[in-house]
Specification:
f41 fragment of flagellin, N-terminal domain; 2 domains; 312 residues; two-stranded antiparallel sheet
């Protein structure tokens, strides 16, 4: 069967086009650094990369949640540490003033220190992170503890903030892994007011300080003495809360470590499926360029021979 010049030309052109496509593909891989530049390059691998990137994106969201949760828990622990110091100071004042050797003037002077400690506790209860009040439960956009100052000059509590809790006792849960949640807050009402209503589930520390300030103002020694057990219990209440926060911080750190490991594995898998081996691709490109030049030269010779045959 005689092969016509048209058949030869078609075969040569087809070979050159295939070589050009391979050359273009290798050049794109070198330029982009990727061996998957479109789904058609490898449909199965492309689909797998999409799935893996989705998992990695979820992991990045968990990482942001962990960062937020860690910030809240750290701030809570720091605030509780200062609260414990304030309660310890208040207890020391109460122990000293419970001694019968002190005068009414001494106890009146101690009131100033206790009012300051009460104000500090309320200020700590209104601690913020990025504009969010961390002890307010679901009410995070406004102070959970009322700072309205008592203006009644005849009241022993004159000049102090009310400290009424206006937040909620709800847990603010943050997802740190798939279907794994950690509460990143602690109820200020439970911590400083002993629950809602005050004293319903623990020690109403603000209420106890109010009673202690009133007792000192009235030179009521027995009232001062009766406040001591409640202050000790309030300190234990804060200590237990810090222990709870510490346990949650450990969970968040554990989740962070697991997430880092998972994200590294996902990134490695994505890289294996979509990233080009630049050294190999560069070598293949050089070989393909040489092969293409040879193909061009060969096709030119074939065309010349076909023309000569025609002239004969």
């Amino acid at each position: 069967m005689r092969v016509t010049e048209n058949t030869i030309a078609t075969m040569v052109l087809s070979s050159l086009q295939q070589g050009m496509e391979r050359l273009g593909n290798l050049q794109q891989q070198v330029s982009s650094g990727l061996k998957l530049n479109s789904p058609s390059d490898d449909p199965i691998s492309a689909q797998q990369v999409v799935m893996l990137k989705g998992l990695l994106q979820n992991g990045n969201q968990y990482a942001r949640n962990i960062t937020t949760g860690n910030a809240w828990l750290t701030a809570s622990d720091s605030a509780m540490s200062e609260m414990a110091n304030d309660v310890t100071s208040a207890t020391e004042v109460a122990q000293e003033m419970a001694n019968g050797t002190y005068t009414a003037t001494d106890r009146s002077n101690a009131v100033t220190q206790l009012k300051q400690l009460k104000s500090q506790l309320i200020q700590l209860g209104n601690t913020q992170i990025a504009g969010n009040y961390i002890f307010g439960g679901f009410v995070s956009n406004s102070p959970p503890f009322d700072t309205t100052v008592n203006t009644n000059t005849s009241d022993p509590l004159y000049g102090t903030p009310s400290g009424n809790y206006v937040g909620t006792d709800d847990a603010v849960n943050m997802e740190v892994a798939n279907s794994s949640y950690v509460a990143i807050n602690y109820s200020g009402g439970k911590l400083l007011r002993g629950g809602t209503p005050p004293g319903s589930s623990g020690v109403d520390l603000i209420g106890q300080l109010n009673s202690l300030i009133t007792a000192l103002s009235n030179n009521d020694v027995s009232g001062v003495q009766s406040a001591l057990p409640a202050l000790n219990s309030a300190l234990e209440q804060i200590t237990n809360a810090r222990t709870d926060i510490g346990a949650r911080m450990t969970r968040v750190q554990s989740a962070s470590s697991s997430l880092d490991s998972a994200n590294l594995s996902l990134s490695t898998m994505i890289s294996d499926k979509q990233d080009a081996d630049i050294l190999k691709v560069t070598s293949d490109l050089t070989q393909q360029q040489n092969a293409y030049q040879v193909a061009l030269a060969t096709s030119a010779k074939i065309s010349q021979l076909s023309l000569l045959d025609y002239l004969k």
